[in-house]
């Protein structure tokens, strides 16, 4: 029997023609560095340049398909043609570093920053996800409009030169709200069991594929599990993953909801979910879910969850538990972490302290980091 070489972080990976020089991924990290018009700024370019040097794949942060679907006021946008030149500049700067460049497209739905607009608060069933946005159940016409908006944004991403797009179906943003039984209580074709709740996601994938053609890489990010009462289960995620394979998705980016709670403000009850593992959660806690989805689908799978410490990145791929390793918070704290991991110098990494300052800061302004002196509250060029 011919021996198969053990996979390593240094391996080249190809996803529908997109060539990655290694298995390390910079996941989509919201920076709030974009302009109020959703345009790329010099600070956006600088943030990615500093982190793309040794990365195989850079996934640019959640970029809104509509102005009323931004996560933060400085979210990037691909809702009009005027945003394409800046995105082309960003894409070019990432690719010059040797990394492949993918952009994540998103609408935040009921988690949208309150900036007004017809689809602010759009949701499957009107479940609140922040105290200052009134959610509403989308009509079939509004759903169709949103599907078209996703496809149009994907086409703009391709025209900007990106190697692929990632459709954001995780973290209780709009598509995730449709996928989760907790936030989708519809009784029409867009609600019901896991397969029916995936209808909106399927519509977006199909419309995007129609715009981009069969040879353009489409990734999809989903929750492997939602650790909140009534949330999407691991079994749901497996079924949805198989459906996405059938619909032509080229790779899956597997995240999760690590915890969530219901809060109340001004008489309004709303869900507060987070994808970030709490400090006491061990590294790699999401690996078993990622491995299950990999085995069930046969697609290249990206995993995330404190994989930038303790040799977890190498262990994850060497054990064939995932194909690509996403390193997020550790790359915020130390932009050279990927290079140090690849060089076997994990002991030289400036460790993330898991203080969550990065998550807290983007609600108020640009991203900050307690241990990275370059991200400690300096006013960026906006």
Structural account:
This protein has 382 residues and is an alpha/beta fold. It has 12 helices and 14 strands. It has helices spanning 42-51, 84-96, 140-159, 174-179, 194-197, 199-212, 234-246, 287-297, 312-318, 329-333, 337-342, 357-361; strands at residues 13-15, 18-20, 24-26, 57-64, 100-106, 122-123, 136-137, 164-169, 218-226, 251-257, 259-265, 268-274, 301-303, 324-326. The strands form 4 sheets. It has an 8-stranded parallel beta barrel with strand order 3-4-5-8-9-10-13-14, surrounded by 6 helices. A two-stranded antiparallel sheet has the order 1-2. A hairpin with a 2-residue loop joins β11 and β12. The radius of gyration is 19 Å and the shape is globular.
**Low-confidence sequence ranges:** 378-382
- How would you sum up the global shape? globular
Helix content: 25-40%
Give the count of helical stretches: 12
Content of β-strand: 15-25%
Instruction: Let me know the largest β-sheet.
Output: 8 strands, parallel, barrel
On the 0-100 scale, what is the average pLDDT? 93
SSE order: EEEHEHEEEHEHHHEHEEEHEHEHHH
Name the features.
382 residues, alpha/beta, eight-stranded parallel barrel, two-stranded antiparallel sheet, 18% strand, disordered C terminus
Blueprint of the fold:
Blueprint: E1 13-15, E2 18-20, E3 24-26, H1 42-51, E4 57-64, H2 84-96, E5 100-106, E6 122-123, E7 136-137, H3 140-159, E8 164-169, H4 174-179, H5 194-197, H6 199-212, E9 218-226, H7 234-246, E10 251-257, E11 259-265, E12 268-274, H8 287-297, E13 301-303, H9 312-318, E14 324-326, H10 329-333, H11 337-342, H12 357-361
Helix pairs in contact: 1-2, 3-6, 7-8
């Amino acid at each position: 029997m011919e021996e198969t070489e053990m996979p390593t972080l240094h391996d080249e990976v190809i996803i529908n023609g997109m060539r990655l020089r290694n298995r390390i991924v910079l996941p989509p990290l919201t920076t709030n560095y974009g302009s109020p018009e959703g345009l790329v700024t010099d600070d956006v370019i600088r943030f990615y340049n500093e982190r793309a040097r040794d990365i195989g794949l850079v996934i640019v942060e959640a970029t809104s398909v509509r102005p009323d679907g931004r996560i933060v006021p400085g979210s990037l946008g691909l809702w009009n043609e005027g945003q394409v030149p800046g995105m082309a500049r960003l894409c070019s700067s990432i690719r010059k570093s040797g990394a492949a460049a993918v952009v994540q497209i998103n609408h935040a739905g009921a988690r949208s920053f309150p900036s007004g607009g017809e689809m602010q608060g759009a949701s499957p069933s009107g479940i609140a996800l922040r105290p200052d946005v009134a959610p509403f159940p989308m009509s079939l016409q509004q759903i169709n409009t949103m599907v078209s908006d996703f496809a149009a944004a994907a086409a703009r991403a391709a025209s900007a030169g990106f190697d692929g797009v990632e459709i954001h179906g995780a973290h209780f943003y709009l598509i995730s709200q449709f996928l989760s039984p907790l936030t989708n209580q519809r009784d029409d074709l867009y609600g019901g069991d896991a397969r029916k709740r995936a209808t909106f996601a399927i519509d977006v994938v199909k419309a995007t594929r129609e715009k981009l053609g069969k040879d353009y890489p489409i990734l999809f990010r989903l929750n492997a599990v939602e650790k909140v009462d009534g949330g999407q289960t691991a079994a749901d995620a497996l079924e949805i993953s198989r459906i996405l394979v059938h619909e032509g998705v080229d790779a899956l980016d597997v995240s999760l909801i690590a915890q969530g709670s219901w809060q109340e403000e001004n008489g309004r009850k709303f869900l507060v979910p987070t994808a970030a593992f709490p400090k006491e959660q061990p590294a790699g806690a999401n690996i078993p879910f990622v491995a299950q989805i990999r085995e069930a689908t046969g697609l290249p799978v990206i995993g995330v969850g404190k994989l930038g410490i303790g040799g977890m990145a190498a262990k994850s791929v060497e054990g064939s538990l995932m194909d690509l390793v996403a390193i997020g918070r550790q790359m915020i704290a130390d932009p050279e972490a990927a290079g140090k991991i690849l060089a076997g110098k994990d002991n030289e990494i400036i460790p993330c302290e898991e203080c969550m300052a990065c998550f807290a800061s983007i609600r108020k302004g640009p991203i900050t980091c307690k241990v990275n002196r370059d991200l400690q509250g300096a006013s960026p060029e906006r």
